[in-house]
Amino acid sequence: MASPAPLTVVIPTLNEASQIGDCVRGLSWTSEVIVVDAGSKDGTVASARAAGARVLDAAEPGIAAQRNAGIAAAKNEWVFALDADERIGPALATELAGVVIAPRHEAYRVKRRNVFHGEVLRRGHWGHDWVLRLFRRERRFGGKAAHPGLQLPATAAPAIGALTNELDHTPYRDLGHHLDKIVLYGRLGAAELAAKGRRASFSDVALRPAFRFWRDYILHGSILDGRLGVIHAGMSAASVFFKYAFLWERQRSG
């Protein structure tokens, strides 16, 4: 690209020193990269600055809050919300640079190319993983703590476009890291349900995980991914189990 694209990329971080440098260095085609850190203890801030990012540290923890702080500080009209475990490849970068110069929609979805234990998942719910990440800077994130969404008025749905190229995503280093995230998100999900007055029933703990496995493995086609499909569907079911198990635990201790 002849000159940096007028796009701000916002990245929330918490102890991402192992990958934030590589993430930021791959964004040299943009005119601004903002890393919003929530108190990392592993050198994330230093790594991000060394790679060329502008860092907002000591931010309020939480993906939505961190993204929103970065969006508010953005100097460009258009913002892309990126995570430290995601990468924008050359084809998507070229597409984004063109879109922000001559936008035809108010916001854009992008499909994630999910790499699961070294293999690209084209089936299951992760094989159809669209996220709303490119938008004008007046927008903000809200909703679920673990997976917040961009807040748009209901009338904006027809104005959302879809990008052609995929966003690379490698969310887990190994099964242990995968399980750690499932437990973390399970606690967050349980806290959200409890705040809404929700209680865990027997069917929530026993049947919802079974249905999730059946949905991902059979209905969404993970069965065609062999052993990897079984692992993926099983971990998906485990995420549901832990959420409602933690909710049940809250009820017992409350």
What does this structure look like?
The protein is of the alpha/beta class and about 250 residues long. It has two domains: about 5-170, Spore Coat Polysaccharide Biosynthesis Protein SpsA, Chain A (Alpha-Beta Complex), CATH 3.90.550; about 175-254, no CATH class. About 40% of the residues lie in helices and about 20% in strands. It contains eight helices and twelve strands. It has helices spanning about 15-25, 45-50, 65-75, 90-100, 175-195, 200-205, 210-220, 225-254; strands at about 5-15, 30-35, 55, 80, 85, 105-115, 120, 130-135, 140, 150, 160, 165-170. The strands form two sheets. Strands 1, 2, 3, 4, 5, 6, 7, 8, 11 and 12 form a ten-stranded mixed beta sheet that branches. It has a two-stranded antiparallel sheet with strand order 9-10. Helix 5 (about 175-195) runs parallel beside helix 8 (about 225-254) and helix 7 (about 210-220) packs antiparallel against helix 8 (about 225-254). The chain is globular, with a radius of gyration of 19 Å.
Helix and strand topology:
Layout: E1 5-13, H1 17-25, E2 30-37, H2 44-50, E3 54-56, H3 63-73, E4 78-81, E5 86-87, H4 90-101, E6 107-116, E7 119-120, E8 130-136, E9 140-142, E10 149-151, E11 160-162, E12 167-169, H5 175-195, H6 202-206, H7 208-219, H8 226-253
Parallel strand pairs: 1-2, 1-4, 2-3, 6-11, 6-12
Antiparallel strand pairs: 4-8, 5-12, 6-7, 6-8, 9-10
Helix pairs in contact: 1-2, 5-8, 7-8
